Prior knowledge:
Chains A, B: InterPro entries: Aldolase_TIM, N/Namide_PRibTrfase, NAPRTase_N, Nic_PRibTrfase-Fam, Nic_PRibTrfase_pncB, Nicotinate_pribotase-like_C. The structure is a homodimer of 443-residue chains. In chain A, strand 9 (251-254), helix 12 (259-272) and strand 10 form a beta-alpha-beta unit.
Amino acid sequence: MLTGMSTALFTDRYELTMLDAALRDGTAARHCVFELFTRRLSGGRRFGVVAGTGRLLSLIRDFRFDEAELRYLRDEKVVDAATVAFLEDYRFTGSVSGYREGELYFPGSPLLTIEGSFAEAVVLETIALSVLNYDSAVATAAARMSIAAGDRPLAEMGSRRAGEHSAVAAARAAYIAGFDATSNLEAGQAWGIPTMGTAAHSFTLLHDSEEDAFRSQIDALGVKTTLLVDTYDIRTGVETAIRVAGTDLGGVRLDSGDLPIVAAEVRAQLDELGATNTKITVTSDLDEYAIATLAAAPVDAYGVGTALVTGSGTPTAGMVYKLVARQAGDGSWVSVAKASTDKASKGGRKAAFRTLDAGTATQELITVSDGFENVPSAGEFPDARPLQAVFVTGGEIDTAYEGAAGVAAARTHHARVREELPVRALALSRADPAIPTVYVDVD
Amino acid sequence: MLTGMSTALFTDRYELTMLDAALRDGTAARHCVFELFTRRLSGGRRFGVVAGTGRLLSLIRDFRFDEAELRYLRDEKVVDAATVAFLEDYRFTGSVSGYREGELYFPGSPLLTIEGSFAEAVVLETIALSVLNYDSAVATAAARMSIAAGDRPLAEMGSRRAGEHSAVAAARAAYIAGFDATSNLEAGQAWGIPTMGTAAHSFTLLHDSEEDAFRSQIDALGVKTTLLVDTYDIRTGVETAIRVAGTDLGGVRLDSGDLPIVAAEVRAQLDELGATNTKITVTSDLDEYAIATLAAAPVDAYGVGTALVTGSGTPTAGMVYKLVARQAGDGSWVSVAKASTDKASKGGRKAAFRTLDAGTATQELITVSDGFENVPSAGEFPDARPLQAVFVTGGEIDTAYEGAAGVAAARTHHARVREELPVRALALSRADPAIPTVYVDVD
Lengths: 443, 443
C-alpha cells in the first residue's frame, strides 16, 4: 500500500528550477558527486544511528513523474517545456553508496554518496534528506532507549504522536535500533516487524465494569494477554485482574502515576496474590532518562511513544546534501565546497573507515580525494572496518537492502556494530561524539 | 497521488484487538461518543491552532481494509475470522463534528467529537491522533512565527527536515496558520498552496564561477528571481549579483552568518549599488525568536525550515482520543472518564463556545452534558461564538472541508479568529493559556 506511487513531487521547487537553468546552460550533464552527511550530532548525542536508506531506495525507484505531476509543473510554469520533457523520461541511472542502515555515524560521516549527472542527482536532494533526517533521528533516540533498557523488551507505541506515514517510518527505525516490537500495523505488514498491543482505557469504560472488560479481553485474547489496570484504582484493578484471569495472567500495564513506586507496589501485590510470573509493562511518557530511572524498579517491559517518534528532543538529524566534486567543462574533476564560515563543508569525494583497537572503535577515518578514481581500498587500512556499501549501480537498486529482509539485516548489523562503541558512548548525558572524525587527504 | 490508498493499517494493533473482544461480547454495538482534545498546551503555548481535520476527513473516506491487509490480519492472527469479516465491510457510518481548521484551541477544547458504534469509532483513534497531533503542532508554531514576522512574508522550506509525507502536511498546516508559500511541490499540487524557491549552493558550485551561476539562473528565471549570495564571500556575491542582473534584481538570499548584522551590510551595499528595490530574504535556522530578533533589521522575507516542521520545540500537540459517553445495555446514556489522578479527563459530551468582550476572547466555555440530546444551542450563549462545525453526518463527509478549497477556507478562518486573541496571547514566552477554559454542566 505504500509502494508504487510516484514520489517525484516530494521535492523542493528549487531542485527543478536549478535543473531548468542547468539544462539551458549545459551544466546539467556534468558528472557530480553529492554527499549526505551531518556537520554535528544534534542534541549532544555521542553517536548517531543511520536509518531510512532501505526506504529511500524504494522511493528512488518510484521517483518518476506521472502525468498529473507533469501537467502541474507545466500549468504552474515551475519549469519550461524542455525541462518537462526531461522529467517525463526521468529515472535515476547513477549510483548510490553509503552507510548501511543500523550503522553508527559521526560528524562528517558520508552516509550517502550519490553520483550521476547534476540533472539526475540534484532532484533527489529533498527526498533523501526527508527520509534520512527523520528516520535517523528516531533510530538514534531508539538506540539510547535500548541501551537504557538493557535486556528488558521495548515496544514502540508512538504512532498517534507522529504524522501517519512518519509513524510507520518511526516504528521501522526503532526496530532497527533495538526495539522489539511496534503497535503499528502498517509497520508490521510493510516491514515484517512484530506487532503488539494491550488495550486502551476506552475498552474498560465501554463496559459496565472493569471486571466485564477484563473478562472480555481474556475471552478474546487468552490469559497471556496484558490487562490495563489503571483506569480506576490500580490496587483494585490488579486484584480484579488476577481474580478474573488467575495467576497465569500474562501481564498488567501501568500508564500513569509515579512509576517506580507504583511498579513496586503492584509487583508486591501480584506476588502476594501468587501471580509471580505476571509481568509489569509501563508506558507513561517514557524516554531514555525515565527508562534509566526505572532500571532498579520491578518492571518487565517498556512501551515508548511520544519521545521515540519525536527523536527525544532531537526530531531531525540535521543532515545536509552537498555537492562535493564535479567535472569541469574539460572533463577533469574539481572538489567543491561552500566557504561560508559557519556552514563550511569539506569538498572532495570521501571514503570512510572505522578504526578499531581490540574491537573498540577509536576513530571515524575519512579519506578525501579530489579525483574520481583515487578512492582507497579497504586493504590500505587493515585495522579499520570499511563503512560504505554499494546500494545502486547504474540505476539498478540492490534489492537486498529493501523490504522486510533489509530491515532484518539492518537490525542485526546495528546490534553487531553497537558492540564496537567505547563505554563512554553509552552514557545518556550530552557530550561530544564518542570518537573523533579524522580526515586524511589521499591525493 | 496521496489519495485513494487504503489508510486502514495506520492503526495501533490494540484498536483491532479491542474491537475483536467487543464483537464477541456484544459491546461493539454500543453507541459511543469519543472526543479528541488536549489536557494542556504543550510547550507553554498561549494558544493552539487546529490543523489536519480536512486531511483526516479524506483519510477516513479511505479507511477501508483492502485484501492484502485483511490477509495480513488473518495470517498474523491479529483478530479472529468474525472480526476480519467485520473489517471487510468496514466503512465509517457515524458522525464527526468539531473545530474548523485554523480555529484556536485551549486545554479541553473538544477538537473532534466522533460518534458511532464503539466498533466504528474506536478504530479511527490512531489515525485521527496522528494527523491532528502533528499538523496542529506545526500550525501552532507557524502562527507564532507569523505573529513575529508581522507583515513580512514567510515561506515554508522545511521539507528536508521532516518525513516526506509529514513535510507535505507541515506545508499545509503552515499555510493555514499564516505562511504565504512553501517550497514543497506536492503541497502545491495537492493543496493549492503557492510554491516558491531560490537556488541551492550546489548550483553555484556546479558552475565554473558564481557569475556563471547567477547568469544562468537569470536566463532561466528572469531578473525578478532571488540569487543566493553566500556561497563564497557575501560582499563579492552581492556585487556580482547586481553586475549580472542589474538593479532590477528581485532579491538576494542569505543562508548563513550573523543575520541582523549581515542583513544591514547587504542592504547598505545594495542601496549603494542602486538596487534599492532588491529584497533580502533570510533562511538560516530561523524560529519565532530569531524572526522577532530580526524585526528591526532590513529583512524583507523569511524562509523557515527545521523549526517549523518540528513544531519549534513541540513536535506533537499532546492530543488524546477518549471515550466520554456511551450507551448502557438498556440504551440509556452514561458519561465515562478515566479516574487516574495525573491523567484524569472529564466525562460527558461537550459543546464549545468562545465568549467575547468587544470582539476579544475572554473564555473557552465548554458545556458538559450526560445525555445525547442535551446539547445547548448557540442561542443560549448570545455573546459567544459557537466553535463546532459538522464534518460528517451518517458517514457522509462534507467535502467543503477537503482539498484545496478546504485549505483556503481554513486560512481565511484562522486570520479572522486570530484577531480575537487578547494582546497577551501574542507574546512568545512560555505562559499559561491566554484565556481560561470554563466548564458548565447543563444537565
